[in-house]
Amino acid sequence: MPAFEQEWAQALEESRRTFSLTTPYEVVQIWQARVASAPAVDAFLASGRDESGFGDLEELRSRRR
Question: Measured over all CA atoms, what is the biggest interatomic distance in the chain, rounded to whole angstroms?
């Protein structure tokens, strides 16, 4: 869980600076969604489906900017 701990520490620091609990709340929501979707991701990867026909989402986002 090092990734969660890192994001959580950053969120707490942001919260201390801004006196707002929004950032820690968002980190918890994001990680709850990640944990909830993990079985579906594992099943997809285990199925051996080919992802080579899909584009890179980050590349598409950068084109829109």
Answer: 46
Task: Record the tokens describing residue 13, joined without a space.
Answer: 């620091």
Triad 29, 32, 38: Cα angle to 5°: 140
Q: What is the pLDDT of residues 1-60, one digit of tens each?
A: 689 999 999 999 999 999 999 999 999 999 999 999 999 888 888 888 766 667 676 776
Q: Is 22 inside a domain boundary?
A: yes
41 within 8 A of 57, measured Cβ to Cβ: no
Tokens of 40: 């579906």
DSSP 19: T
d(CA 61, CA 49): 24
Instruction: Identify the domain containing residue 32 by its residue range.
Output: 1-38
